[in-house]
Amino acid sequence: MEDLALLLAAAAAGHALAHRSRLPAVPCLLVAGVALSLIRPPSRTALEETLALGVALLVFIAGLELDIRRLGAQRRAALRVGILQFAAVGTCGLAAASLLGFGPAEAAYVALALAASSTLVCVRLLQRRQQLFEPFGRLVIGVLLLQDALVVLLVPFAPALGGAWTDATAPAAAVAALGLAGLGVRRWLAPLFLRVADEEELLVLGALAVLFAFMGAGAALRLPLVVGAFVAGVSLSPFPVEEVVRVELSPIGDFFTAVFFVALGAVIGVPTPDEALRAGALAIVVLLATPLLVTVLAERSGFSARSAIEAGLMLSQASEISLVVGLSGVWAGRLSDSTFTVLAMVTGGTMLVTPFLASDRVARGLTRLHPARWMRPPAVAAAGGHVVLIGCGSTGSRLVDLLLTQGREALVVDEDPAVLAALRETGVAAVRGDASDPAVLSRAGVDRASVIVSTVHRPRRNEALLREVGGRVPVLVRVFDEEEARWVEARGGRPIVTSEAAAAAFLAWYEGTVRALPRAREDERGGSGTPG
Question: Quick one: which of 367, 526, 380 has its CA closest to 443?
């Protein structure tokens, strides 16, 4: 009990540090664990038991998130970017590990650990910045889900990646058997969870029973602990089963996740200079290779330069699943404690850098350096007097339909390749790009428009638009609270406070104001020339 109390106290200190510094929680919890190892180290048995439970719940919850239907229109792009990035970064990691003197088996574990990005860090940043449902945000989530699955399912094959390919036959058969069992649970047992959704205790016990049953089956098949836990999560991932299970297990998962990372820090302890140098070299590989690869791949998948750069910066860190990979290697006797310490330092260090690297300022700076900025595409043909729609989500698409029905010319600015493809099929003019980019606004002819309507998720992304227009063209901006409304009004825009009122308010305003302007000006010219 004393060891558990120490771990909980260190976890509370780590979360307090993360809250005050606005840094990701994982590296702060690792630091708290290292500090605990120096002050009063818990027993090795307590740490190993905590790590085992933490790994199981962490990977189980990751499996719950894996439902490919959630990717929607970004499914193909996420698969393409995720697989190619995983393979390319893993290859770079394998080469770097070999150059740093790691043996074949250890280099394989290092490569697998570096190939994925952190779900915990990326989701928290996207939520904090209200970017979760932007096109690049949906792409990032899809890539993360895919890579988590690849890492966990490839853990049993890490020894084969190190050179012993004959070792891959038995793990492949075991993974296939466990996967078939997961499909059976997914089809016949998972729907039963909805019947007991109002009985919280039974629901929690049932979910944990599935988890430990798959962990036991995995152990019997000589698979790493994480594989059984992950397949258990995937078996309960169909919507809405996963939502019901996740709500009930979320407090338990948060508790064990925090304690897990503290225990991990306590196991690692203080690194040696050699370990720090190796970790620094591998971190540079992740920080340089990931943004470049993801940017190129996302652009090839139809994303704008700004969205592709933001996705690359957001994914530029090693994953918490990397630590799970390292633990599996240590428990299997194929990874030394020193190599595991290196992996933990790479993970914690790159997570710490991410909030600063994946900032709007860095993204804007890199966008200005992008080669596409040197090759100005021609402006989209628009005679003037057209309606410019910034963003074409649910609200914007309704406005497009209404404008087309009434025979008005509309031009859409959006950065979602799926949205742009659908618009072009219907004959609607569209410009791909970010509305905060003056070059994109110029292509859309905003200075010649009769009115501009912005429905982007973050109203403050309209600052460049409002500055570019300078009050010469009416700009209607969708906002979600009074503070945002005041911000828009102070810059010359006209806020529409609710998305439901946006279509009706815009059309009424357009009919009563914009279409009346030419008549009013004509009357004024006629009145000024009439003798008094």
Answer: 380
**How many distinct structural domains can be found in the chain?**
2
Long-range contacts of 94-97 (CB under 8 A, 24+ apart): 96/281, 96/282, 96/285, 97/282
Going by C-beta distance under 8 Å and a sequence separation of 6 or more, which residues neighbour residue 188? Answer: none
In the 8-state DSSP scheme, what is residue 237? -
* pLDDT tens for each residue of 248-283: 777 777 777 788 888 888 877 788 889 889 999 999
Evaluate whether residue 103 is within a structural domain.
yes
- In a shared domain, residues 128 and 171: yes
C-alpha distances out from residue 486 to 129, 279, 391, 520, Å: 20, 48, 21, 29
Bridge-based pairing of strands 410-414 and 387-390 is: parallel
- Measured CA to CA, the distance from residue 148 to residue 469 in angstroms comes to 44
Q: Which residues contact 361 (CB under 8 A, 6 or more apart)?
A: none
pTM of the model: 0.71
Helix, strand, or coil here: 410?
Answer: strand
Contact call for residues 410 and 389 (beta carbons, < 8 A): yes
342 within a domain of the structure (yes/no): yes
Specify if 29 maps to a domain.
Answer: no
DSSP 245: H
Name every residue whose Cβ is closer than 8 Å to that of residue 20 and which is 6 or more positions away in sequence. none
